[in-house]
Design brief:
Rossmann fold, alpha/beta, binds S-adenosyl-L-homocysteine, 7-stranded mixed β-sheet, 5-stranded antiparallel β-sheet
């Protein structure tokens, strides 16, 4: 599995320790960004034997319904030529494979562009979707033709920046070393008040505001593409739909929460996605925001139960497992309420199943 060492045989923790000793504390955003780049680069963290499991890995129903959602919008737009499928952070390629199979049943067979930063995962994606192309980043995804985009549990892996209110004012949250050489969070020295919206500057000392500049940039770019090229996009992740304060940074290893600072590069670092801010950004960049709804309600609106029943009839010995998957994906205590689905479309594109906008 994962090799947390650099080419020179040093762990990422060693690298950070030397860096901090030489130049002082580093931003939490840098710590998270480099940790996750290392974490994903060399291994497949998904599944029972890995660190965490995602909706498409729980059941094929998830990807099929997401694919049908895109195909339905494309059909109601008059089946425009030149549409292509794009996915951000495709994991094992399971979501793409299931979504494309469902699309194919209604006559949509688009070219496929998978944006993946990890060579190890890209290799798995190539097996799952042999026809896929692998643009280095979103900027290399075609500039023409309607874009049909999915991103599941991608935004939560992007580095967050945290700002904390201190006596003298707002400061960035930094990672330093304590007396025993362990990583610890401290307030940086530079004033950051200008980075905090005026309405929130007066918060009491100790208040933490978390932002994700990388997620904001990605959603801005996707929204701009939708405005120019047409298409539809779903961002699915765990997160909140109203602004809030406090740190949501967490680390998962072997399906267990661990200290986010303890093992950089060896645990998956994630933060809640701020869907309220992302919806504003998308609208400001010309996309039509259809809404942000709970995953459970969305899947049920798309016919999760009927799909589960059809699968169970075709494979009666799987009926119980299929029922458990429905509960995991849509149950209120499981992924159903914590996970949200944000839909964006190009101007003039119709609303989509399970969203309030017409
Ligand atoms: N969507 C998949 C995988 C989720 S894990 C699923 O639902 O199963 C997060 C995915 O995002 C992985 O594929 C990871 O390699 C990718 N990823 C994380 N940070 C990235 C970045 N900065 N650039 C590109 N891909 C990234």
């Amino acid at each position: 599995m994962g090799d947390p060492t650099t080419g020179s045989g040093r762990t990422l923790a060693d690298h950070f320790r030397r860096l901090i000793a030489a130049t002082g504390p580093i931003s939490l955003a840098r710590f998270m960004g480099e940790s996750n780049a290392r974490y994903y680069a060399g291994k497949d963290p998904l599944g029972a034997a890995g660190d965490f499991i995602t909706a498409p890995e729980i059941s094929q129903m998830f990807g099929e319904l997401a694919g049908l959602w895109l195909a339905d919008i494309w059909t109601r737009t008059g089946r425009p030529d030149g549409a292509f499928y794009a996915e951000l952070g495709p994991g094992r390629g399971t979501l793409a494979r299931d979504a494309l199979r469902a699309m194919g049943r209604v006559g949509l067979e688009p070219p496929v562009h998978l944006v993946e930063g990890s060579p190890a995962l890209a290799a798995l994606q190539r097996q799952a979707v042999p026809q896929a192309r692998f643009p280095a980043d979103l900027a290399e995804v075609p500039m023409e033709g309607p874009i049909l985009l999915l991103a599941n549990e991608f935004l939560d892996a992007l580095p967050v920046r945290q700002l904390v209110k201190t006596g003298p004012g707002w400061r960035e949250v930094m990672v330093a070393l304590d007396d025993s050489g362990q990583f610890t969070l401290v307030a940086g020295g530079l004033p950051m008040d200008a980075a905090v919206p005026e309405a929130r500057r007066g918060a009491e000392d100790g208040t933490v505001i978390e932002t994700c500049p990388a997620a904001a940039a990605i959603v801005a770019e996707v929204a701009g593409r939708l405005a120019r090229q047409g298409g539809a996009a779903l961002f699915i992740d765990y997160g909140h739909t109203a602004a809030r304060t406090g740190s949501t940074l967490q680390a998962i290893r072997a399906h267990t929460k661990v200290d986010p600072l303890a093992l950089p590069g060896e645990a998956d670092l994630t933060a809640h996605v701020d869907f309220a801010t992302l919806a504003e950004i998308a609208s400001a960049h010309g996309a039509r925001w259809l809404g942000t709804v709970e995953q459970g309600a969305w899947l049920r609106a798309l016919g999760l139960e009927a799909r589960a029943e059809a699968l169970a009839r075709a494979a009666p010995d799987q009926r119980e497992a299929i029922g458990r998957a429905v509960e995991r994906l849509a149950g209120a205590e499981q992924m159903g309420r914590l996970f949200k689905v944000m839909a964006l479309v190009g101007p003039g594109w119709p609303g989509g199943a399970g969203f309030p906008a017409p």
